[in-house]
Design a protein that fits this description.
Structural class: alpha/beta
Number of domains: 1
Strand order of the largest sheet: 7-8-9-13-12-15-16
Helix content: 10-25%
Distance between the termini: 29 Å
Strand content: 25-35%
Order of helices and strands: EEEHHEHHEEEEEEEEEEHEE
Largest sheet: 7 strands, mixed
Shape: globular
CATH class: Alpha Beta
Amino acid sequence: MPPLPFGGHEFRVAGGKALFWPARKALIVADLHLEKASWFAARGQMLPPHDSLATLVALAKLAHETGAEEIWCLGDNFHDAQGPVRLPDAARQHLGALTRRTNWTWITGNHDPALAADIGGKVCAEAELEGLVLRHEADPAEARPELSGHFHPKHKSMARGRSVTRPCFVEGPTKLILPAFGALTGGMPATHEAIRAPLGRILAIHVPAGDRLVRFDDAA
């Protein structure tokens, strides 16, 4: 797991789309968007229906590999407020096992501003851990070091003569925006103005590539 220090703490990138905090044995993920496919299906757009299970299986694998004792989800955990009701039995079993085995915290987002208590874990609007603020969407007025999601940042680059787009972490002077972890999530260019604005300026774009991180400095 390549290192990604931030806010005076040592993190490592796990699975290309999550942060692992060794000092706390904590996994931090953003934008699971569970039950996104079933939301679209109800509106006539059929998508592969296994997104929630794929996302939770991937998260369980990371939790096992890292030995995580805490899991923090940075909002848009479900694609809509009724997502927990539609969760298939297999996905529900995986989620239940994870929330029982770890100290699990849901941070609410714009897609899921309220979450029922019976899904397991704890629910809060934001959190502060050892000087770091964890919330769904970056707050331009926040001066403390902050971890967030919301924008699903991706970076396009050339590799061996072809264009490759990968999830990435976008770092500003006091903020780090995580990529979306969900199996069925789109992305926004890392240098988009919507991402640049709350950061103030982009210091670096960190793109996971196997067991290393490739750093791109913002050219703007």
